[in-house]
């Protein structure tokens, strides 16, 4: 008896081509959706970074401006321009003078009236001082403060004075020759106030902001990239006549862009701008 053969049918070429076309369309749609979502994620991440960058930079600028003038000797204060010096040719280039860091040392011995030197306790660190450097010696009647005091503390009973380093010196626990009144050039004046052991000693320094192309620098170090605009305006001198209420007030404008262009966004790049008015709380209006 003969058993009939079973005929097995497969896919024809046309059916395979149709299936491949349908699969290709589906894969292309999935890939396009994926690339759109990925690009959107990348740009949103860059926008978030720009937003965080502009806020972080503004917080640091505000902190520096609020410390402007703190620790400056009386003979060096001749107006707001001395504490915050704006380059007349570029409002994106300005220098702030004040105390911006923690104490560098304490007094290892009492400094009495009439002395022309102080001895520091540097906690084992070797420090270098150059003639002409300004140092702020700070002491509170309540307690020696472990950190830089806020402006509110300055209203409490305390003693502080800015002195000038008279001669170069370096090392651990150095003895520093000082000029307690730098108003008279070439004359070394002695202390007219007494400071106790452990009084804090700070450096009076400068912070300079510069916009170099699209890179914002702080004392020569990169602070932020992709900066489209950075400007500081002294509101007191912004327009006649000067108003006393605006003395020591500065407006800072900072604009940061995303790192890459977004072809789907008008203008090509996402922009984040932050504008802030900051009060330099250590400056006093003298009329």
Describe this structure in words.
The strands form 3 sheets. The protein has a 6-stranded antiparallel beta barrel. Strands 13-14-15 form a 3-stranded antiparallel beta sheet, with helices on one face. A two-stranded antiparallel ribbon has the order 5-8. Mean pLDDT is 80; it is low at 75-81 and 142-148. The N and C termini lie far apart (126 Å). The chain has one domain. A hairpin with a 2-residue loop joins strand 11 and strand 12 (221-224). It is of the alpha+beta class. The protein is built from 2 helices and 15 strands.
Write the layout of secondary structure elements.
Blueprint: H1 13-66, H2 80-83, E1 84-86, E2 93-98, E3 105-107, E4 117-121, E5 126-129, E6 134-140, E7 158-165, E8 169-172, E9 175-179, E10 200-212, E11 215-218, E12 221-224, E13 227-234, E14 249-257, E15 271-279
Antiparallel strand pairs: 1-2, 2-10, 3-4, 3-10, 4-9, 5-8, 6-7, 6-10, 7-9, 10-11, 11-12, 13-14, 14-15
């Amino acid at each position: 008896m003969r058993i009939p053969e079973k005929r097995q049918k497969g896919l024809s070429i046309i059916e395979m081509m149709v299936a491949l076309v349908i699969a290709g369309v589906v894969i292309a749609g999935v890939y396009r959706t994926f690339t759109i979502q990925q690009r959107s994620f990348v740009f949103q991440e860059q926008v978030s970074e720009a937003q965080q960058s502009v806020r972080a930079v503004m917080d640091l600028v505000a902190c520096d401006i609020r410390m402007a003038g703190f620790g400056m000797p009386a003979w060096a204060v001749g107006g707001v321009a001395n504490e915050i010096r704006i380059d007349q040719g570029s409002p994106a280039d300005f220098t702030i003078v004040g105390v911006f860091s923690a104490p560098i040392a304490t007094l290892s011995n009492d400094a009495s009236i009439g002395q022309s030197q102080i001895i520091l306790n540097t906690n084992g660190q070797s420090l270098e001082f150059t003639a002409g450097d300004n140092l702020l010696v700070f002491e509170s009647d309540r307690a020696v403060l472990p950190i830089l005091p806020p402006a509110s503390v300055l209203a409490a009973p305390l003693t502080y004075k800015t002195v000038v380093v008279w001669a170069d010196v370096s090392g651990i626990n150095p003895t520093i020759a000082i000029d307690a009144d730098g108003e008279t050039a070439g004359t070394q004046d002695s202390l007219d106030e007494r400071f106790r052991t452990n009084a804090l000693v700070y450096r009076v320094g400068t912070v300079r902001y510069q916009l170099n192309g699209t890179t914002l620098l702080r004392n020569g170090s990169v602070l932020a990239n992709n900066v489209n605009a950075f400007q500081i305006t002294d509101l007191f001198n912004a327009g006649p006549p000067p108003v006393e209420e605006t003395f020591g007030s500065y407006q800072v404008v900072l604009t940061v862009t995303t790192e890459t262009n977004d072809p789907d966004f008008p203008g090509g790049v996402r922009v984040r701008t932050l504008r802030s008015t900051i009060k330099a709380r250590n400056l006093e209006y003298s009329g």
